[in-house]
Amino acid sequence: MWFIGLRSTAKPREEWTVTLDDHLSWMKRQHEAGKIVMSGPTPDRRLGIYLIRADSRPEAEEIAGSDPYTAAGFCTFELIEWELHQVMGAGPFSMAEIKAHSQ
């Protein structure tokens, strides 16, 4: 199964104690494991977009929740199930496109 993970900021960045290096290290491990196959920020950098490959929604929630930013409570995730045919050859993703396909 495929999920679009939308990570949004829950607390002001000035309060964050988790470093970018922690987050990037986690991201690298997820990419190497084939669990996150695409990721990137939105232009305003208040939202991250992840394409997550998982066998189930609970597994996708576990992957998203293991992001150091999320685990520390600085960010939250919204998961949207995504069809394989939508994933193949797709991107870049716009917020309007993601929301339209999730309905």
Task: Please describe the topology of this protein.
Layout: E1 2-9, H1 20-32, E2 36-41, E3 47-53, H2 57-65, H3 68-71, E4 75-82, H4 84-87, H5 95-101
Antiparallel strand pairs: 1-3, 1-4, 2-3
Question: Uncertain runs with pLDDT below 50, 5 residues or more?
Answer: none
DSSP strand (E) fraction? 25-35%
CATH architecture: 2-Layer Sandwich
Q: What is the helix fraction of residues, given as a range?
A: 25-40%
Backbone shape: globular
Alpha-carbon Rg, integer? 13 Å
CATH class reads Alpha Beta
Distinct helical segment count: 5
**Terminus-to-terminus distance:** 17 Å
What would CATH call the homologous superfamily?
Dimeric alpha+beta barrel
Total beta strand runs: 4
Number of domain units: 1
> Largest beta sheet, briefly?
4 strands, antiparallel
* Major β-sheet strand ordering: 2-3-1-4
Mean pLDDT: 82
The CATH topology annotation reads as Alpha-Beta Plaits
Overview of the molecule:
This protein has 103 residues and is of the alpha+beta class. The protein has a single domain (2-101), classed as Dimeric alpha+beta barrel (Alpha-Beta Plaits, 2-Layer Sandwich), CATH 3.30.70. Helices cover 36% and strands 28% of the residues. It is built from 5 helices and 4 strands; from the N terminus they run E-H-E-E-H-H-E-H-H. It has helices spanning 20-32, 57-65, 68-71, 84-87, 95-101, and strands at 2-9, 36-41, 47-53, 75-82. The protein has a 4-stranded antiparallel β-sheet. Strand 2 (36-41) and strand 3 (47-53) form a beta hairpin. It starts with a strand and ends with a helix.
